[in-house]
Amino acid sequence: MAELNTNRNFNKDKKIDMTKIMAGMGKLPPQAIDFEEVVLGAIMLETEAFYKVSGLLSPEKFYSPVHGIIFEAILKLSTEQLPIDILTVSQKLKQLGKLDDVGGQSYLAHLTNKVASTAHLEHHSLIISQKFIQRELIRVGAKIQENAFEDTDDVADILDMAEQELFKVSEGNIKKDVASIGDVVAEAIKQIEEAAKKPDGLSGVPSGFTDLDRMTSGWQPSDLVVIAARPAMGKTAFVLSMARNIAVDHKRPVAIFSLEMSNEQLVKRIISSESEISGEKLKSGKLADWEWTQLETKIRNLENAPMYVDDTPALSVMELRSKLRKLKLQHGIELVIIDYLQLMTAGSNVGSREQEVSMISRSLKAIAKEINVPIIALSQLNRSVEMRAGDKKPQLSDLRESGAIEQDADMVMFIHRPEYYGITQDEDGNSLLGLGELIIAKHRSGAIGEVFLRFVKEFTRFQDRDASFSMIDTGGNTFQSKMNSGDSDSGIPELSANKNFNETSGLSANTDFEESGNAPF
C-alpha cells in the first residue's frame, strides 16, 4: 500500500444525514423506540436499573434525540452520586435548560408508565445498542461511498479511512464481559500445567537466548515489550537474531514490520547472519567457491521458516491491526516485531508528536491483548545517554518522545554495548569486548536484571555468550555452524505476502547486497 497521507480531509467535517440516506433507500433507519422508552422508564423507577445497563448504553445510542438528552441527564446524576428517579431527572433537566425540550415532566411520567417489568432490562438495552451499530454501519458505508465517488482522494487513503471508521464502531461497541475469578483461576492453572510439561519450562515464546529465556520464561501472550537503545547498539540485529531462532529453531510463526528497511535489505541481513559471510563480501559478490557452497547450503535453513515481513512505510495503527488480524487468522503468528515505534503514525491528527507516540504505545498494548500475542516494539533513546558520565548505561527516563511508552509496556529492555563507548573491562577487570548487555529495567510480571550476549559484529547478530562454533565439512572446505547451538532443517520460505524469497538457485555472483555487515543498527 502506498505511503499514507496524514493530512486527510475525507469531508470529515461534513455531517452524514442519516434521514437523507434512508430516504434515498426508501427505508426507515434501524431503531427501537419502544425499548428506549421502557429502559429510560425503568431507570427512573428502579434504583439498580441504571447500573445494569450503564455499560451498554450512551446518549448517542438512542435513536430519539429526546431520549439521548434524558439519558445524558441520568449520567450526570450518576457521576454526581445523586439518586436517580423521575423527580431528580426532572430537576437535572431543568438545571440544564432542557426540560421543555424533552416534553416536560409529563413525558418523563409517560416513560415510567411504559414499564411493565424490569426483568429483561439488559436484553432491551442490548437491542438498543445493536440498532445503533446498524445505523453506524449505514453511516460509515455512506461515507465510504461518497468518498469513493470523488476523484480527489487517493484510494489508499479511502481504504485507511474505511478501516478507521469501522474500527471506531467495533472498538466503541464490542465489550468484553466481566469474568468470574473461578474461570480465570482454572485457565491460569491450565497454563501452569502446560508449562510444567515443557522440558525447558517456558510458558511463552522462546527467544532462543538461554539466559534471557530463564529470566522471562519466554515472551508472554498479550505483553507489549519495548526494546530501546541508541543508534548502532544493535536493535535490529538483536530482533533479527531472535526472529531467526524462533522461526527456524522453534518453528514458531513470527511477523516483522520493518518501517526503516525494505524487505530485501532485511532479508539480506538475515542471509549474512545465517550464512556467516560478512555483508561486505555479499555486497561485492566476491566469494570463493567454498563460500558459495556455504551460502547455498546455509540458506536452505530459511526456505520454509514461518517468518513474514512487511516494509510498509509510515505504518498506521489501524493498518497494523488489520494486518495482524489477517496474519493471526491465516498463519497463526505467535510473535510480532515492530522496527521501530517512532516511525509509526497514529493515523489521524492527534496534536503534538509526544501525544501521537503516546497514542501509538497505548494502541500497541491494546492490539497485543486483542490478538493475544506478544508485541516487541523497538524504540529510540534520547541523547542523554551520550552525555552521561561513567558506564553510559541507559535508564527509563531516556525513552524518547513519550513517558507513556514506559507506562504502557509490560517490559522495557535496553541494549547496551560498552565496547562502543571504549569501555573494554568491567569493574572486576573482566573483558567486555564483543559483549552486548540486555538490561531489563521494567518487568511487570517478573524480575529485572541484566543478561550478557555475544555480539558478532562481522555478521551483525547476537548469540548466547558461551555459544561456540562447530566446524562442518563441505567436501574439502569447512565453515561455521549456526548462530546458537544446534542445527535446524527448516527456514524462511516466503517472508512477505507480496514478495517471495529467492530460491537457492537464484543466487549468483552478481547478487546486489546493499547492507553492510558492519552496521548493527
Could you walk me through the main structural features you see in this protein, from its secondary elements to its overall organization?
With 521 residues, the protein is α/β, with parallel strands linked by helices. It has 18 helices and 11 strands. A hairpin with a 4-residue loop joins β8 (449-456) and β9. The protein is elongated, with a radius of gyration of 29 Å. It starts with 17 loop residues before the first helix and ends in a 41-residue tail after the last strand.
What is the compact description of this entry?
The chain is an alpha/beta fold.
Molecular shape: elongated
Distance between the termini: 26 Å
- The tally of beta strands, per DSSP, is 11
Structural class designation: alpha/beta
Contiguous uncertain segments of 5+ residues: 1-15, 469-521
Q: What radius of gyration results from the CA coordinates?
A: 29 Å
Q: Describe the largest sheet.
A: 9 strands, mixed
Q: What does the average pLDDT come to? A: 78
Q: What is the helix content?
A: 40-55%
The spatial strand order of the largest sheet comes to 3-2-4-5-1-6-7-8-9
